[in-house]
Design a protein that fits this description.
mainly alpha, Arc Repressor Mutant, subunit A, three-stranded antiparallel beta sheet
Length: 131
């Protein structure tokens, strides 16, 4: 029961819902998420902790940067929720803006701050299997 409550709590906030959408298909660092969501890194870190406690994210450290992405094992469940609430991102204005901002920010990744995640071949296969 505790896991179900943590899962619901992790998604019961608009900011955390937006974070989950942003890191669903690719790993992003805290600075990238902060830029896209226009939040202080401390606030964002608090939200990420809640999502992590629900066991929805995998994390990768690269130097001083931490990258977050949705775990492959929970993607089918989240896809079902996205479909149920009809928020695939294209039609919802906030999620669509976030997606546009993320693409712009990723185009500046190397120039601004972080080197990007390194994904092991095992993770790549796991990610490819979920699509």
């Amino acid at each position: 029961m505790r896991e179900a409550v943590q899962f619901a709590h992790a998604l019961a906030d608009e900011t955390r819902w937006r974070i989950v959408h942003l890191v669903f298909d690719q790993a992003l660092c805290v600075c990238e998420l902060a830029d896209v969501l226009r939040l202080p890194q401390s606030t964002l870190s608090s939200h990420l902790k809640v999502i992590q406690r629900a066991d929805l994210l995998e994390c990768e450290r690269r130097g001083k940067w931490m990258f977050y992405r949705v775990k492959a094992t929970v993607k089918p469940l989240l896809r079902g929720l996205f479909k149920h609430f009809d928020e695939g991102g294209k039609d919802h204005p906030v999620l669509a803006r976030d997606a546009r901002q993320m693409e712009i920010r990723l185009g500046q990744r190397e120039k601004l701050c972080c080197p990007g995640p390194t994904t092991t071949p095992i993770k790549r296969r796991a990610l490819a299997a979920t699509r």
